[in-house]
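[09:14] KT: can someone run the structure on this one? pasting the chain below
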Amino acid sequence: MVHYRLHGKPKRPIRTIKRRDYPKSFGHGMTHRLAIYDMDRTVTFTGTYTGFLIHVARAMAPWRLVLFPCVILLMLAYVMKLITRQRLKELNQALMIGSNVQRAKLMPHVESYAERVVAKNVRAGALAQIARDKADGCTLVLATASYRLYVEPIARRLGFDAVIATDHLSQDLRYVRAKIAGENCYDTGKLRMIKAWMAAEAIDRTTTHIRAYSDHVSDAPMLEYADVPFASNPHKPLAKLAAERGWTRVDWN
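[09:31] RB: done, structure tokens below
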């Protein structure tokens, strides 16, 4: 089945995943079935992190919006490899939200941001695939470099069963600090966190069948770990890698 975009000039048909894209033995004799999704630009059209910072700053401390040019400068510093991706996140949060914010005051704005993302920034094709994976008996896992703080409300609204994401140091405390606990859930770190989650849930890889979806080549370790990898709305480096590895490409509207 092929769907086309309703607005604008389509560059290519948007392909719906058919059962022929899965091995005939999908899940046969397996104890667990997992469907693991990246979030930004895989499930969503655009990234969510910058939007989260602006949404919260506008709601809690509009004066912080004048600091946004500093966010751009920090991004340039990251591109120039002067700071790490993890440190970039911490500094941006300190600038736009604060280094130590009461969770009770923050969470209403986190929830409203999640509502906005689900209403305006989620791909219909991704929603359809999530529904198919659920119907196939998969445990739905959202694995993303974005903060768990706002990923969990988004995941809850989309029907995911579990979240693997970047955590704050004070994840379970009254105050949200601009400090990451452990790894940024990105690249090989994401795969390590997936494996750690599976171990904590007593999910044995040898008796588990995994589908995985991502738009970005940084998720190559996760896609290689899966039994059925999908390059979903891939950027050019992942599209090239997917063609070389024989991974199925899908472009969701």
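[09:33] KT: thanks! Confidence is low (pLDDT under 50) at residues 1-14.
[09:34] RB: yep, looked fine to me
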